[in-house]
Design a protein that fits this description.
This protein is an alpha/beta fold. The chain is 40% helix and 15% strand. Strand 3, helix 4 and strand 4 form a beta-alpha-beta unit.
Length: 149
Amino acid sequence: MSHRILFVCLGNICRSPSAEAVVRTRAEARGMALELDSAGTGRWHIGEPPYAAMQQAARLRGYDLSALRARQVTPRDFSRFDLIVAMDGQNLQDLRDIAPVTGGAELCLMTDYAPSLGTDEVPDPYYTGDFEGTLDLIERCAEGLLDQL
């Protein structure tokens, strides 16, 4: 069974493209067929590649973000994907605000897949500067997500 998953953060230049790449790499290693994408709730970075420092940190762990380009979430995404995974509570609320009244993708937080971490958000390294910590968290959550699929 194929799953269609969209990862969402604010600008789609750090957390959500990293989550897309990490889950893609780890799913392929497990032989899992997934349709993955990422988007932002904001529109500031549409068409731009992921943030250079995020790309560098990801590359050092074997994840290639270079082909990804930022885009904004659209209403169509709610019918195109089975699962939309937000990086923090504000993005989850923004998604709920634009979601169709009935039907559509299931919405959740990335950290729902690693409850033992004791956090409900993947902090934005664009502001914190902690790209390694963000990747650590995404990797743990990615494993939990793939285990549940």
